[in-house]
Specification:
Layout (H helix, E strand, L loop, with lengths): L3 H4 L4 E5 L3 E5 L8 E6 L11 H22 L3 E5 L9 E7 L20 H28 L3
Antiparallel strand pairs: 1-2, 2-3, 3-5, 4-5
Helix pairs in contact: 2-3
């Protein structure tokens, strides 16, 4: 079976390094839904070396910090499930008290309609946030294994 994360980026590419990439996913109702995707096809975090695991989590941390600094969300969700796509990737999702699913997970049933105005306000701030990520991730790569 073909792997969708091997065949394509998996969303809007924000940054790509030698070992991983950061994309913004197109997930309805969640404008600040990012993924840190390991470029090589591995299924589990433990498939990586200790240095690779540290590098991967450094990238997750950089994305989380940028979301917190630029969007001031209520909470950041970080998850690595891989049940549907067994290719190592981390979800880094800015959550807001007003989002349609909060405080439940993004994969749970919606609790209320999506607030289009608040989502649009978050989307409007993404270009500045995303403009900071390549440099920050590049520094992370230099300090890590990239």
């Amino acid at each position: 079976m073909a792997c969708p994360l091997c065949a394509e980026d998996g969303g809007a590419l924000i940054w790509r390094g030698e070992h991983l990439r950061v994309i913004r996913a197109n997930e309805a109702g969640f404008p600040a839904f990012y993924r840190v995707v390991w470029n090589a096809h591995v299924a589990e975090f433990s498939d990586l070396s200790a240095a690779e695991r540290a590098h991967c989590m450094d990238a997750v941390t950089v994305v989380e910090q940028a979301l917190r600094e630029h969007l001031a969300p209520t909470k950041i969700n970080v998850a690595a499930l891989g049940n549907m796509v067994p290719h190592l990737h981390w979800h880094v999702i800015a959550r807001f008290g007003w989002d349609s699913h909060f405080p439940s997970p993004v994969w749970a049933p919606a609790q209320r309609p999506s607030p289009a105005e608040q989502e649009a306000a978050v989307r409007a701030r993404l270009p500045v946030l995303e403009s900071t990520l390549p440099h920050r991730l590049g520094v992370c790569a230099v300090e890590g294994i990239e």
